[in-house]
Every structure is written in C-alpha cells, then in structure tokens.
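Let's practice the habit of predicting before peeking. Look at the sequence and jot down your guess about where helices and strands might fall. Then scroll down.
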Amino acid sequence: MPSIYQVDAFTDRPFAGNPAAVCLLDASKGHAELTDAWLQQVAAEMNLSETAFVHRAEGGFNLRWMTPTVEVDLCGHATLAAAHILWDRGHVASAESISFFTRSGTLVANRREEMIELDFPQRPATACPPPELLLSALMVDAGDVGFAGRNEFDWLVAVSDAEVVRALSPDFQKLAQVDVRGVIVTAADNSGEFDFISRFFAPAAGIDEDPVTGSAHVCLGPYWQRRLGKNPLRGYQASTRGGVVGVCLTGDRTLLSGNAVMSGNAVTVLEGKLMC
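Done guessing? Here is the structure:
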C-alpha cells in the first residue's frame, strides 16, 4: 500500500506554514492505483491545497501535484514537503540533491544545513491592465494598485501598503471567474522584518486562500528584485497560518528556501498507509 504523509512546509513548527500531503507511489508501481482518476480521488480525500505524488524514476523522481479538484503545473510547498519526506525517511541520502521531473521541467532540491533549497524557473509577470472583474473581486481601489501584470499561471497585483494586503477580504465567487490559476497580492513590508508580504488566492483551482505558496515566489522574486534592487529577499505570506520564504535569484532561476530549524524547513505531522 502506498505511504502517505502530511507535512507542514515553510515552517519550523507543526500547525503553521502550508500543509501538503505527500504520497509515495513506488510500492504500487504499475498498479491500477496510478490512474489519474485515482490520484485525483486521493487528493480530494486529503482535502489539502496540494497533494504531491512521488514516483521513483531513473536519475530522480517523477512528481505531480493535485489540488482537491485539478492537477497543477507548479507547486512549491508540496515540492518542499516531498523532498523533506524523501530525506527524512531515508529514500535519498541526506547529502544528495533530488531531481524532480514535473510538468514544469526538472526541479532540484538541496539541503543547506537547516534549510531545504528549491531551484525553480523564474516566472516574472508582464505588466498589463487588470480586468475590472479582478479588482472588483479583490475589493481593491484602482488608486491603491501600483503594478498589475501576469505570467503563465497567475495575476500579480502590487498595492500601496502592507495593511491593504493584510485586510483583503475578496469575493471568492467573483474571483473564481477570473481566467487564471491564482492571484498574488503583494506590498513592501513596513515592519522592517521582511522585504515584502503577500497573499495568494486561487478559488478557480478549489483553494480560496493558500497559506504559503512557493510557486508564487517565482513571480514575486523578480518583481521585488527590480523594485528594491536587492537579492536575496525575504518574504512573508500573510495568511492565517503564515510562513516565511527566502528568495535568491540566480540567472533565470529562482531559489526558494524556507527559514527553519527543524528537518530542513518542514515538519511531518502525520504518517499512514492508503488502504484502497
């Protein structure tokens, strides 16, 4: 039976950061359980923002991510959770890097002392006027918007003040009608602790608000590097659970790392076996 875990990512303590399920499929290689329908049922059963499905392959691991309703092309926190489990449970030696083969190409994870470092491709946003529906759904005044743009996955909306980000209460029914995976809203941090803060909404993918979104930072990193002239950067995702993501840009790649002190930067909170 496949093993399954629940991991809190981008945190050094349980019940914080972003929870992801990690399902190891090696034990069921070639079985009917590997059908897309079965994977989607497992993700729906776990009912977390993402479930990572990991399957050993030559030179690394095949990796897929599913929300409770759809498969997605890129996910940071579930990749971090998968790497954490592979090292923590001895499937990969602690000194070895991990290559994940995904719909977004090969992604690499490395251990850096107490942190896990993810090497992802940058996905900068191209400036364009936001649709009226987007701002209406976010309930943001156009005068508060300093930048709007999008990449292949998400809209990025930068607003004037961190308190605007923290106070957002979107109309999720409206926001789900915007033709995009998700919406990132960000501002410079005014506390001095971080470089920027953000929140991420993806009701069209079945997730009203994601607690900590690694894949959003492949867009946030390039934007804030240009704005602040700074690299590396430290961001805080201001969801209810909250989480810290470090971003270091190298060439056309984005290195994402959570600031943490336990088992890299993720905490296993549940372990079990799928019985069906």
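How did you do? Residues 76-88 form the longest helix (13 residues).
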